Amino acid sequence: RLSKTLAKALNDQMTKEAHAAQIYLSYAAWADDQGYAGVANFLFRHAHEERNHMMKFLEYILERGAKVIVTAIPAPPSDPSSINNCFEKVFQHEVDNTNAVYNIVNLAHEERDWATFNFMQWFVKEQLEEETLAQTLMDKIKIAGGENAKSDALYALDKDLEKTPDDA
Ligand code: OFO
């Protein structure tokens, strides 16, 4: 059975993933409203991924016989001020989430809960991929001119993102 500490940490992380989905949803709606359909499409798809992550935590908590506590999800932060700012926020969010994942890995290690340690490895790998992806977005916007990106460069970037594959 999961310890109380780990059950709480995993429940908190489940809510964090739901929060991540809300963040991506809200940025996607913002991007669509700004006319960036490709960016919006990419972010909407990512919101789905975050919800899948939430479900993975939920299912694991149940599997280990602990109580799932579904709580209110905090509201997403304010809208980005530009596409550049949007990608910066996305990157920072992923870095924060990686730290949260690492904290649980540490806890599992301390408690010698190897099942949880093993379960968390999927997220360690996933966060690495997501940080790399977010870093790629920042690189692309940087090449396009960052805050001063010209509209034709943003147009090309938007088209490109419509097709960017996502993973889990
Ligand atoms: Fe759940 O992977 Fe991003 O945050």
TrEMBL record:
<comment type="function">
    <text>Iron-storage protein.</text>
</comment>
<comment type="similarity">
    <text>Belongs to the ferritin family. Prokaryotic subfamily.</text>
</comment>
<keyword id="KW-0479">Metal-binding</keyword>
<dbReference type="InterPro" id="IPR001519">
    <property type="entry name" value="Ferritin"/>
</dbReference>
<dbReference type="GO" id="GO:0042802">
    <property type="term" value="F:identical protein binding"/>
</dbReference>
<feature type="binding site">
    <location>
        <position position="127"/>
    </location>
    <ligand>
        <name>Fe cation</name>
    </ligand>
</feature>
<dbReference type="GO" id="GO:0008199">
    <property type="term" value="F:ferric iron binding"/>
</dbReference>
<keyword id="KW-0560">Oxidoreductase</keyword>
<dbReference type="GO" id="GO:0004322">
    <property type="term" value="F:ferroxidase activity"/>
</dbReference>
<dbReference type="Pfam" id="PF00210">
    <property type="entry name" value="Ferritin"/>
</dbReference>
<dbReference type="InterPro" id="IPR009040">
    <property type="entry name" value="Ferritin-like_diiron"/>
</dbReference>
<keyword id="KW-0963">Cytoplasm</keyword>
<keyword id="KW-0808">Transferase</keyword>
<keyword id="KW-0408">Iron</keyword>
<protein>
    <recommendedName>
        <fullName>Ferritin</fullName>
        <ecNumber>1.16.3.2</ecNumber>
    </recommendedName>
</protein>
<dbReference type="GO" id="GO:0006826">
    <property type="term" value="P:iron ion transport"/>
</dbReference>
<dbReference type="InterPro" id="IPR009078">
    <property type="entry name" value="Ferritin-like_SF"/>
</dbReference>
<feature type="binding site">
    <location>
        <position position="53"/>
    </location>
    <ligand>
        <name>Fe cation</name>
    </ligand>
</feature>
<dbReference type="GO" id="GO:0006879">
    <property type="term" value="P:intracellular iron ion homeostasis"/>
</dbReference>
<keyword id="KW-0418">Kinase</keyword>
<dbReference type="InterPro" id="IPR008331">
    <property type="entry name" value="Ferritin_DPS_dom"/>
</dbReference>
<dbReference type="InterPro" id="IPR012347">
    <property type="entry name" value="Ferritin-like"/>
</dbReference>
<dbReference type="InterPro" id="IPR041719">
    <property type="entry name" value="Ferritin_prok"/>
</dbReference>
<dbReference type="GO" id="GO:0016301">
    <property type="term" value="F:kinase activity"/>
</dbReference>
<keyword id="KW-0409">Iron storage</keyword>
<feature type="binding site">
    <location>
        <position position="94"/>
    </location>
    <ligand>
        <name>Fe cation</name>
    </ligand>
</feature>
<comment type="function">
    <text>May alleviate iron toxicity in the presence of oxygen.</text>
</comment>
<feature type="binding site">
    <location>
        <position position="17"/>
    </location>
    <ligand>
        <name>Fe cation</name>
    </ligand>
</feature>
<dbReference type="GO" id="GO:0008198">
    <property type="term" value="F:ferrous iron binding"/>
</dbReference>
<feature type="domain" description="Ferritin-like diiron">
    <location>
        <begin position="1"/>
        <end position="145"/>
    </location>
</feature>
<feature type="binding site">
    <location>
        <position position="50"/>
    </location>
    <ligand>
        <name>Fe cation</name>
    </ligand>
</feature>
<dbReference type="GO" id="GO:0005829">
    <property type="term" value="C:cytosol"/>
</dbReference>
